[in-house]
Amino acid sequence: MATLRLGDTAPNFTAQSSIGELNLHEYLGDSWGILFSHPADFTPVCTTELGTTAKYKPEFDKRNVKMIALSVDGVDSHKEWIKDINETQQTEVNFPIIADEDRKVSDLYDMIHPKADNNLTVRSVFIIAPDKTIKLILTYPASTGRNFKELLRVIDSLQLTEYHKVATPANWEQGEDVVVSPAIATEDAKKIFTKGVKEIKPYLRMTPQPNL
């Protein structure tokens, strides 16, 4: 099994899910996607994560992002668990949960780490661009819940830097200044970024976020 790297095409698959059969590439279409695994149904941290995902769906929708969850449990288990998520998290699960009982998808995406657990998926996150390339990979242990505000922040950065010649500095948030790409000479940068370019060092130039 080859290790997936940033820039690789996200492997396609067809699997059963809580909303019926799902083909990854067809389901994503022209959208961005977040494919994220959780260790098992009816587990406490995962229950809070999927409830949080449901609550954040309007924010992901604004960014043209589709969420897809996965665990090695089956469709019937997912549907029963969704009732618990809706009840305990005061929400409605509004995205598909893939059933991966045969571990086909888990193996395809290297979501099972034997030294962590031989049978359960770790908390993997794959952000997939509309061209189906993998833009970000995160792996959390089963004991640590994910920060969905951070996933939104990362999406904002990825979408900004995909279409503009900039990078985002540490702790960047939507609306803050960004870094001019090192590949652009300062004089050229001043023509491209009409809001202004501040040169701190020859290799560190800042400009207001260009898409606002």
From TrEMBL:
Listed PROSITE patterns: THIOREDOXIN_2
Domain Thioredoxin: 4-160
Top-tier EC class: oxidoreductase
One example of a Gene Ontology biological process annotation: cell redox homeostasis
UniProt keyword annotations, A-Z: Antioxidant, Oxidoreductase, Peroxidase, Redox-active center
Gene Ontology molecular function terms on file: peroxiredoxin activity
Transmembrane region(s): none
Top-level lineage group: Bacteria
Catalytic residues as annotated in Swiss-Prot or TrEMBL: 46 (cysteine sulfenic acid (-soh) intermediate)
Entries under InterPro entries matching the protein: AhpC/TSA, Peroxiredoxin_AhpC-typ, Peroxiredoxin_C, PRX_1cys, Thioredoxin-like_sf, Thioredoxin_domain
EC number: 1.11.1.15
Cellular component aspect of the GO annotation: cytosol
Similarity comment text for this entry: Belongs to the peroxiredoxin family. Prx6 subfamily.
Protein name: Peroxiredoxin
